[in-house]
UniProtKB/TrEMBL annotation:
Pfam families listed in its UniProt record: HTH_1, LysR_substrate
Residue ranges annotated for the HTH lysR-type domain, each copy included: 8-59
Keywords for this protein: DNA-binding, Transcription, Transcription regulation
This protein's name: LysR family transcriptional regulator
Family designation: Belongs to the LysR transcriptional regulatory family.
DNA repair found in the keyword field: no
Entry superkingdom: Bacteria
Stretches that traverse the bilayer: none
PANTHER family: HTH-TYPE TRANSCRIPTIONAL REGULATOR, TRANSCRIPTIONAL REGULATORY PROTEIN
InterPro entries referenced in this protein's UniProt entry, alphabetically: LysR-type_TF_proteobact-type, LysR_HTH_N, LysR_subst-bd, WH-like_DNA-bd_sf, WH_DNA-bd_sf
Length: 319
């Protein structure tokens, strides 16, 4: 039984002089009051009350226990006050997991802004391409780009991540530019271990198209594939926020403008709503607001990089 409640019951009995009055004050049955008193006497290892037909009085052990119970209730009240104060002000350490590309291109600046606003909070970024186990690895929040959510976790939508199919001018000069998504099956495609490794999904109007792809290089980190694509290793499907810079610098060419790669959701994923610390609640609210601002998401303020049209531009790309 709850010792705090038992302490409160005993204090009320001592103050009101009877178990019936204590039960009325606490809005509790007399039987329950009797049970809490018996439990308190068991914990104290002594009889706490003299019982007569007219009144109850404290034994010597009861006097000592009453003083201790009052101190216990004071400490409990102070803890509740402290918890309430903490709930209002974000503080303490949060462990946040996300992939490298998202951390580098998006989350680092967002976290820096959040910490400037809440200097008593701290964030430990856990960078990993794989979906981590939040409970086993003590992760408070995971930022995931996915359309396949774990039903056992709570996911708060943050935004949408668009992708772009791209290759370097050198690769296209050597192998030609695919005219349709079906042509990707004839090219060396750089595939991501955790998403679409053998099947890339596209939309053209209302039509959905799945294209089998393969190549001689795959990796579990999209930034590695981006670097390989820039070096001319093959064709890659990249998050638009990662490919934007190299495309603007003419190091990559965006391909297949008439076909839209499958969009993915961006989510803040956590394990439970119970006793959510203020730092987690405010960080989620902050990210929701930040992802809703065109200046911050997608990075650069537009939904996807400008895509060239036609084969002529594949040989001599422009931003």
């Amino acid at each position: 039984m709850d010792r705090i409640v038992a302490a409160e019951v005993f204090v009320r009995i001592a103050e009101r002089g009877s178990m019936s009055a204590a039960a009325e004050t606490l809005d509790m049955s007399r039987a329950m009051v009797t049970r809490y008193l018996a439990q308190m006497e068991q914990w104290a290892g002594a009889r706490l009350l003299h019982r007569t037909t007219r009144r109850l009085s404290l034994t010597e052990a009861g006097e000592e226990t009453l003083a201790r119970c009052r101190r216990m209730l004071e400490v409990a009240a102070e803890m509740a006050t402290a918890a309430s104060a903490c709930a209002e002000e974000p503080r303490g350490l949060l462990r946040v997991a996300c992939a490298q590309s998202l951390a580098q291109d998006v989350l680092a600046s967002a976290v820096a802004d959040y910490l400037r606003r809440h200097p008593r909070a701290a964030i430990d970024l856990h960078i990993d391409a794989r979906p981590v186990n939040l409970v086993e690895e003590r992760i408070d929040l995971a930022i995931r780009i996915t359309n396949d959510l774990d039903p056992n976790l709570i996911a708060r939508p943050l935004g949408r991540c668009d992708s772009v199919v791209c290759a370097s001018p050198a690769y296209l000069a050597a192998h030609g530019e695919p005219a349709s998504v079906q042509d990707l099956a004839l090219h060396n495609c750089l595939t991501y271990s955790y998403f679409g490794k053998s099947l890339w999904q596209f939309e053209q109007g209302a039509e959905r198209i799945a294209v089998p792809v393969s190549g001689n290089l795959s990796a579990n980190e999209s930034q590695v594939l981006l670097a390989a694509a820039i070096e001319g290793a093959g064709i890659a499907m990249q998050p638009a926020y990662s490919a934007r810079g190299p495309i603007a610098q003419d190091r990559l060419v965006a391909l297949l403008p008439d076909f839209e790669p499958q969009g993915l959701g961006v989510y803040g994923v956590y394990a439970s709503r119970r006793q959510m610390p203020a730092s987690l609640r405010t960080l989620l609210d902050f990210l929701v607001a930040r992802f809703a601002e065109p200046a911050h998401w997608p990075p650069g303020g537009v939904s996807s990089p400008a895509r060239p049209r036609g084969r002529a531009r594949a040989r001599n790309p422009t931003a």
